């Protein structure tokens, strides 16, 4: 609630035309007698109910009145802090131009205002939670009032406009993920700088190295593969040679040989994941 007690620059705040409220008798009664009504409904009535009902005057005053006011006020006003963070599984579904988020947890404590991203993007809509399963009792109360003839001209944002915002933001998020993935590919897909002849391959194999050739690239089956930030794992431990689904014997069949045909369907048509893994085991290009 800190933002409420800090001095604000009112020139930066938006203005809303509420002149129509001046002609609403019910709202004017509430406006002119707000403090008296607040004391009556928030403090006096809860205390009387507990005191006259089961004799707990102190409990009625301390808990049903004062503690309730503190709890409700904090829940009402923390929407301007918690709903502007990514806490409690909150997401931005309609816009990322502001910090507001949609949060089911916040909605439970604020009578539906937890769907704050929608509220900021479509502020004139009488709803916050637009789905039938969204917890928004304020929306339901307004809708009920309209059925009873006590509310009219309810403003609803066209579904096509809502869906357009949702899809545009989803596309933006997808593009960002593609950029991250592309950068990852650039970091991992580093071609070998050395060029070896077949004689060089055979010489290295005679020294005990398990090398094979796939698509004119020399693959070290006992090499290392980057698996995370700042560390590597031996392929013999976790990746290719010892964990190969077909077993080590089939790999040994192609040590010192060209395994392109076997890798691309002659024995088994390997997956894209296998191709990405093999790319990390390259040690040289084969001189043709």
Output the keywords.
288 residues; alpha+beta; Flavocytochrome B2, Chain A, domain 1; four-stranded mixed β-sheet; two-stranded antiparallel sheet; 13 helices; 6 strands; elongated
Q: Which shape, going by the Cα principal axes?
A: elongated
Q: Label the CATH architecture of the domain at 194-286.
A: Roll
Q: Strand percentage, roughly?
A: 5-15%
Overall residue-averaged pLDDT value: 85
Strand order across the largest sheet = 1-6-3-2
Series of H and E elements = HHHHHHHHEHEEEEHHHHE
What is the name of the CATH topology of the domain at 194-286? Answer: Flavocytochrome B2, Chain A, domain 1
- Based on secondary structure, the structural category is alpha+beta
Helix content: 40-55%
Distance between the termini: 73 Å
SS element count, helices:
13
- Quaternary organisation: single chain
- Spell out the CATH superfamily of the domain at 194-286: Cytochrome b5-like heme/steroid binding domain
Radius of gyration, in Å, reads 33 Å
- Uncertain regions: pLDDT < 50 for 5+ in a row? 229-237
For the largest beta-sheet, the strand count, sense and barrel status come to:
4 strands, mixed
* Overall CATH class of the domain at 194-286: Alpha Beta
| Total beta strand runs | 6
């Amino acid at each position: 609630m800190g933002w409420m007690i800090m001095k604000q620059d009112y020139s930066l705040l938006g203005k809303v035309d509420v002149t129509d409220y001046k002609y609403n008798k019910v709202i004017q009664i509430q406006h002119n007698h707000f403090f008296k009504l607040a004391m009556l409904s928030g403090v006096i009535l809860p205390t009387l109910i507990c005191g006259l009902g089961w004799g707990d005057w102190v409990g009625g005053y301390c808990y049903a009145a004062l503690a309730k006011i503190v709890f409700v006020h904090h829940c009402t006003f923390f929407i301007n802090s918690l709903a502007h963070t990514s806490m409690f599984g909150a997401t931005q579904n309609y816009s990322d131009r502001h910090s507001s988020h949609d949060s089911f947890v916040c909605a439970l404590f604020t009578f539906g205002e937890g769907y704050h991203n929608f509220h900021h993007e479509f502020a004139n809509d009488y709803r916050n939670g637009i789905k039938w399963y969204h917890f928004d009792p304020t929306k339901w109360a307004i809708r009920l009032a309209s059925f009873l003839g006590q509310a009219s001209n309810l403003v609803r944002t066209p579904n096509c406009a809502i869906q357009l915002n949702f899809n545009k933001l989803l596309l933006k998020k997808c593009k960002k993920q593609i950029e991250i993935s592309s950068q990852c590919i650039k970091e991992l897909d580093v071609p070998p700088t050395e060029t070896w002849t077949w004689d060089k391959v055979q010489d290295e194999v005679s020294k005990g190295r398990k090398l094979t050739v796939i698509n004119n690239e020399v693959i070290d089956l006992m090499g290392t593969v980057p698996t995370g930030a700042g560390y590597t794992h031996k392929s013999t431990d976790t990746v290719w040679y010892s964990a190969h689904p077909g077993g080590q014997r089939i790999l040994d069949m192609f040590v010192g040989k060209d395994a392109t045909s076997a890798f691309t369907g002659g024995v088994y048509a390997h997956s894209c994941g296998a191709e990405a893994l093999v790319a990390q085991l390259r040690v040289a290009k084969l001189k043709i």
